[in-house]
Amino acid sequence: MNDGPFDPQGVVWQAVSPRLTTVRLISTAIALAVPLAVTLVIAALVEATWVWVLPAAVLALGVWAAVLVPRQVRALGYAERDEDLLIRRGILFRALVVVPYGRMQLVDVQAGPLDRWGGIAKLQLHTASASTNAVIPGLTPQEAARLRDRLAARGEARLAGL
């Protein structure tokens, strides 16, 4: 199915690892744990019944994230073409980033503690443009290393042709 500018014809998209879903859900749970604990303490100490709306709102936010995060991860993808790399993301607010190999200056692989625990890494491309948001999260470490080496080689080959 061709979906206009966000799904060019003939492009075979590579999905990111589904482990990214688990890592993002754990990260969200950690971020919501403190607000949930604080609102529960406040609700327990205050005698007004309406205050229980606060911890309920934090829980609702957690449920919303549990529904949204898997869809966001499924929407992530990348594709290598002859002259450029395509990265797509987003459900409601979609984005397609096209990075020509000749514009790449640095290919960076990163993994925080939670990423390493989940067995994933993030590949970030740096170009001459400061506003480039070329990041592919949720790659297996092997795929991130392979892609880093391949993109760096392609970038060097394109720069040598200038």
TrEMBL record:
Membrane-spanning segments: 25-46, 52-69
Which Pfam families would you find in this protein's record? Answer: bPH_2 (PF03703)
Q: Where does the YdbS-like PH domain lie? A: 74-151
Top-level taxon of origin: Bacteria
Q: Mind listing the UniProt keywords for this protein, alphabetically?
A: Membrane, Transmembrane, Transmembrane helix
Stated name of the protein: Membrane protein
Species name: Actinotalea ferrariae CF5-4
